[in-house]
Specification:
155 residues; alpha+beta; 4-stranded mixed beta sheet; two-stranded antiparallel ribbon
Length: 155
């Protein structure tokens, strides 16, 4: 299923009442994240040789520039989009950071989800760093992100 996109037409062979038949199916969009107290912006990052789908979470009612976090998902090639209600600890961490007043950006890796480019498993370390650097530039370009004040964490 990973090779199909929203809007693709498929022919599915099914069996009903011991008769086989073909049914045409048009794939719909994957549901979107819609927490009640957080705005989720679906966007894209134009990067060298790829376009990366990104999700940006912003506290509702925000009227000022906020500190921002670029969330890097780690070594796997799974999606960073988690719209389904089952518990997801990473999503909960991102939402808690957002509720605490941070803008948080997640970007898909190359070839994952709606992102284009080389399949994730074939992207080398340097190219992946370049892609995430493009995501960081995009994050810093939003008018609701305070990119001038460095964030200093203190104990």
């Amino acid at each position: 299923m990973k090779s199909f996109k929203s809007g693709d037409h498929l022919i599915c062979r099914v069996q009903r009442d011991q008769k086989e038949m073909d049914i045409e199916v048009t794939l719909g969009d994957w549901p979107r994240e819609r927490p009640g107290d957080i705005q989720v912006v679906y966007d894209a990052v134009d990067a060298p040789q790829a376009t990366l789908r990104s999700l940006v979470t912003i506290p509702n009612g925000n009227t000022r520039k906020l500190p921002a976090i670029l969330f890097l998902q780690g070594f796997d090639c799974s999606s960073v989009d988690w719209p389904l209600p089952e518990p997801n600890l990473t999503r909960e961490l991102i939402y808690r950071l957002t509720r605490a007043g941070f803008v948080v950006m997640r970007s898909e890796k190359s070839g994952v989800g709606d992102s284009t480019g080389t399949p994730c498993r074939d992207v080398g370390f340097r190219d992946e760093v370049s892609l995430f650097t493009s995501a960081l530039r995009k994050l810093k370009s939003y008018d609701f992100v305070d990119s001038d004040t460095p964030l200093v964490l203190k104990r």
